[in-house]
Design goal:
Layout: E1 5-9, E2 13-19, E3 26-33, E4 85-88, E5 99-106, E6 123-131, E7 136-145, E8 150-159, E9 165-170, E10 173-177, E11 183-188, E12 196-201, E13 205-210, E14 220-227, E15 238-243, E16 249-255, E17 261-267, E18 274-276, E19 281-283, E20 287-292, H1 295-310, E21 324-326, H2 328-331, H3 337-350, E22 354-357, H4 386-396, E23 399-404, E24 408-409, H5 414-418, E25 438-439, H6 445-461, E26 464-469, H7 489-507, E27 512-515, H8 525-528, E28 533-535, H9 542-553, E29 561-566, H10 579-586, E30 590-594, H11 602-617, H12 619-624, E31 626-629, E32 639-645, E33 652-658, H13 699-702, H14 712-716
Helix pairs in contact: 3-4, 6-7
């Protein structure tokens, strides 16, 4: 703190605040490239007068707070933009006013934090604001991650009065920019179409990026990016925003008529109200902000390094993730011990390291209509029990992973028959159904304890090294008999989930957890605090995955992105693409296979074996290298390039991806980013094999004998 100023610095950025002398409000002045001046006056906006209907704050001369750049804003005092906090009380209405009281700087990692939270920060600045009339304190937290050019912001509202206040909004972060001349990038989609990049130039008005599904959602990821209009992948200014939270989120981008931009980010208060009683407090999730003057790749590097070092569980920070075979698309619900063991034996021969048993191993689950909530083994499919199949797979030489969907309950289940009140539903209403299932009420501690106990029994009994944690429908019918205020359901559900995850991941700290929610419906920093990787999408089609994985890389590191090579025709799109293409794209992250290995030809088996050998050789690069997207991404070009460079810059892998086959395309030129300018590199190409069956009737143009399509000779090729 210098005079009335607070200067927060990271390796390459500065964030400047001050206490306004006339109003005692906390003002925001600058966030961007590191400043080296000590006279901050040139950075302070000067407002000499308002016009027309402008309101003077407390009648103070030239203090029109609607035009001020503020660090945290309220309503009812003359600022008519979206506000950081909305409260209501019968005595005071909606008007509140938080003024500067004090600050403190904490040098170590001992500070009150939300759950979950980032770690390994350098310093924490806590600025306390107070509304004397209401008897409320507001603590603003700034965690500084100097090496990664990241600042985490969150706040805590404390009720020191004897009254009860209704909290209708409490945002984690506010930044007021001097101008709104930005392009906004959001990462939107749906099932099988997650995190597609959408851009729009900001103009006067409000753009909101949010989720209303009870989860971070595949519709609008909490990741957002602001970039200057000439910013590219490798040059220019960009700001990134994300949230350590897995529930409903909301980010406002408001450009006022005088071209000022306000950005508010935090948990969403959609269908949510918090009653804050005497001596109670409420803490928001952490909002993550970062800045780069080195383009979008530079911004992504900040996010990636921060996530690896400050979000991912420490044990898995540099852990080389195993290559799995998942049985889902090979068998769906139709499997038995013999079929699983045959798959495992072929997988071992190909070099795969882990066998993952997906849905259908419990209860009497032969389809998606029953048994969720029941954790006993399906004796028809696994008559010798779960431990038997785990031990058998281990003897083959593979580790074992298991699929769970703990947050759900089937109406046709023993659990539902015993505890129908454990399902999320509104009294006297017929509940909405998704994937033939209901959601378990995680606001209830007895439900949390049940899940912890049942899952712990299985993980303690068997030698399980990996857990896939699924969540296959959004939340509806928000109601719980455990809550006195059902307006708090959404957040209490997420807090219940975090208690379960925190307990299990600490109790079984050696197990690798992978998050999943119908694919990428809950790909967020909150889940990554417990689960180091996330199933990116249920859509494994090569072309569709180009869009999905490219969008995901803007905010999330490669080691968190789980990809599988699947069969053709693809089960989601029915498209046929070469095995090599499917593999090359799946390399960009954590590699796995999800197809019927028993139906592979000998040529395909040999090809997959070579693929796995190649991936293992460069696994440290594919999972932990520095990623550079080419200036032409799949969102603006049919051909795109990914370069992944080792940390020591001695090795790099370049993957050139073509979207669709088109006629008369220009010659492909590979531009490689991230290499050491003073090092001479040797380049070589990986041989690309094509199955000549894909040429169909064209075979007969060159074949000396006529080949009947799908005939004996054709099948033997």
């Amino acid at each position: 703190k210098i005079n009335n100023y607070f200067l927060i610095e990271t390796k390459n950025t500065s964030y400047l605040l001050s206490v306004d002398e006339k109003t005692n409000l906390l003002a925001h002045h600058y966030y961007g490239k590191k400043i080296k001046i000590h006279d901050y006056e040139p950075l302070i906006g000067k407002l000499d007068g308002g016009a027309g209907t402008a309101i003077l704050y407390e009648g103070k001369e030239n203090k029109f707070i609607h035009y001020m750049d503020l660090e945290y804003s309220t309503i009812g005092r003359g600022d008519y933009r979206e506000s950081s906090i909305i409260l209501f009380n019968e005595k005071l209405g909606y008007t509140f006013d938080f003024k500067y009281e004090s600050y403190q700087i904490i040098e170590n990692n001992i500070v009150e934090e939300p759950i979950p939270h980032s770690k390994n920060y350098d310093q924490v600045l806590i600025i306390t604001l107070k509304d004397e009339v209401a008897g409320l304190k507001l603590e603003l937290y700034y965690k500084v991650f100097e090496e990664y050019d990241v600042i985490s912001k969150y706040c805590k509202l404390i009720n020191e009065s004897s009254d009860t206040y209704i909290v209708e909004r409490l945002m984690s972060s506010q930044i007021d920019f001097k101008d709104g001349d930005f392009t906004l990038m959001t990462f939107d989609g749906n099932w099988g179409k997650e995190r597609h990049v959408h851009e729009r130039d900001l103009t006067v008005g409000i753009y909101t990026n949010d989720s209303k599904m009870g989860i971070s959602s595949n519709m609008h990821n909490p990741l957002t990016i602001l970039k200057r209009k000439k910013t590219t992948e490798n040059q220019g200014i960009a700001y990134g925003f994300n949230l350590i939270y897995s529930g409903n989120h909301q980010t406002f981008f408001e450009v006022s008529i005088n071209n000022k931009l306000r950005v508010l980010s935090g948990m969403s208060f959609y269908a949510y109200k918090k009653n804050l009683k005497e001596n109670e407090s409420f803490m928001t999730p952490e909002s993550i902000i970062t800045f780069s003057s080195d383009g979008l790749n530079g911004l992504s590097h900040n996010f990636h390094e921060f996530t690896l070092n400050c979000i991912i569980p420490s044990k898995f920070k540099n852990y080389l993730r195993p290559i799995v075979i998942n049985n889902w698309e090979a068998t769906y619900f139709n499997f038995d011990e013999e079929k699983l063991l045959k798959l495992a034996k072929v997988a071992k021969k190909l070099g795969i390291e882990m066998f993952v048993l997906d849905d259908g191993w419990f209860g009497h689950r032969d389809n998606d209509r029953s048994s969720l909530g029941d954790f006993y083994v399906n004796s028809k499919k696994l008559p010798h029990g779960l431990k038997y199949i785990v031990d058998k797979v281990n003897k083959i030489g593979l580790d074992f992973g298991l699929w769970f969907e703990p947050e759900m309950i089937s109406e046709d289940s023993d659990l539902y028959r015993k505890h129908p009140d454990w399902a999320v539903k509104v009294p006297r209403r017929k509940p909405s159904i998704g994937r033939n299932q209901l959601v378990l009420d995680l606001t209830k501690k007895e439900v949390q304890d049940y899940l912890i106990d049942e899952i712990s029994k299985i993980l303690s009994l068997c030698n399980i090294k990996y857990v896939k944690w699924d969540f296959n429908r959004p939340i509806t019918d928000m109601y719980s008999t455990s809550l006195s205020n059902n307006g708090e359901f959404f957040h209490e559900y997420i807090q219940g989930l975090y208690r379960i995850l925190d307990t299990l991941t600490k109790r079984f700290s050696d197990i690798l957890f992978e998050g999943c929610a119908s694919g990428g419906n809950r790909f967020d920093l909150g889940m990554l605090c417990y689960m180091p990787q996330t199933w990116t999408s249920d859509n494994t089609d090569y072309y569709e995955r180009l869009f999905i994985q490219t969008g995901t890389t803007y905010g999330y590191p490669l080691s968190s992105i789980s990809n599988h090579v699947s069969s053709i025709p693809n089960h989601q799109t029915l498209r046929k693409t070469p095995l090599a293409s499917r593999f090359h794209l799946a390399c960009l992250g954590v590699l796995g296979y999800e197809l019927n290995l028993l139906e592979l030809t000998s040529r395909e088996q040999k090809e997959i074996k070579k693929q796995i050998e190649f991936y293992k050789k460069y696994r440290h690069i594919f999972q932990y290298g520095t990623l550079y997207r080419s200036e032409k991404t799949i969102f603006n070009s049919n051909v795109t390039t990914f370069t992944v460079v080792s940390k020591d810059k001695k090795e790099a892998v370049v993957i050139l991806c073509q979207g669709l086959v088109k006629m008369a395309q220009q010659e492909d030129v590979i531009y490689v980013d991230g290499l050491d300018n003073d090092t001479l590199y040797e380049f070589y190409n990986l041989k690309h094999h094509l199955n000549i069956k894909m040429f169909g009737g064209l075979l007969n143009v060159v074949s000396p004998i006529k080949v009947k399509i799908n005939g004996v000779v054709h099948k033997a090729i």
